[in-house]
Amino acid sequence: MLHSTDSTIDPSSPIIQALFGGTFDPIHYGHLRPVEALAKQVGLKQVILLPNHVPPHRPQPEATASQRLEMVRLAVQDNPLFTVDTRELERQTPSYTIETLKSFRQEVGEQRPLAFIIGQDSLQSIHTWYKWEELLGICHLLVCSRPGYQSQLSTSDMQKWLEQHKIDTPISLRQKPHGCIYLAATPLLNISATDIRQRHQQGLSCDDLLPPAIQNYVDSRGLYRQ
């Protein structure tokens, strides 16, 4: 049974089921536009956004869980590529990616391709994630480019791991249910939620950084002013 979600996963579909998690405090173009470009490269029909409840590796969000969820829904309400899943927000414990991926794997079955979208910054630190060694036994990793980050990993062991699983073309993502890493050539957008929050505190415009519906929501709720 699916958790509270805005869509239904069809276990019989051959298409890749792609997931993209984040604190989304707030969601912005740096999240959305690279994933849209990735979807075109890989041929993704749908990307499920997973707002985190308690991110284990980051400072706690400034906006509440309900506010962040509402912003995510507003950001993608007119974009058929995206839908939203709330299972991580329903937890009262840290949002460990491996547990979320296991729950999706149970729902879609063992044979359907399942992919988790991350940025190059997350790829660099993935060895610090909880049970990270199990990730590729459950899903593929689709990696979006990030300004200031290289695809070369920090240690020889991690680089060897990357080379063992890296693929050059996305076709393998459809031929296997998990186990591949695809480094996508996505737009390099130097946008961060931290910068957006700081600009709001300073009374500066963020119109070029996030969708108008999100800007209006932030203004109407008085978010990020402290």
From TrEMBL:
Q: What keywords does the record list, in alphabetical order?
A: ATP-binding, NAD, Nucleotide-binding, Nucleotidyltransferase, Pyridine nucleotide biosynthesis, Transferase
Q: Which reaction does it catalyse?
A: nicotinate beta-D-ribonucleotide + ATP + H(+) = deamido-NAD(+) + diphosphate
Pfam families, per database record: CTP_transf_like
Q: Does the keyword Transferase apply?
A: yes
* Recorded superkingdom: Bacteria
Keyword field contains ATP-binding: yes
Q: Return one Gene Ontology term, BP aspect.
A: NAD+ biosynthetic process
For this protein, the Enzyme Commission number is: 2.7.7.18
| Pathway of action | Cofactor biosynthesis; NAD(+) biosynthesis; deamido-NAD(+) from nicotinate D-ribonucleotide: step 1/1
Q: Residues in domain Cytidyltransferase-like?
A: 19-199
Any idea what job this protein has?
A: Catalyzes the reversible adenylation of nicotinate mononucleotide (NaMN) to nicotinic acid adenine dinucleotide (NaAD).
UniProt name for this protein: Probable nicotinate-nucleotide adenylyltransferase
Species classification: Bacteria, Pseudomonadati, Pseudomonadota, Gammaproteobacteria, Enterobacterales
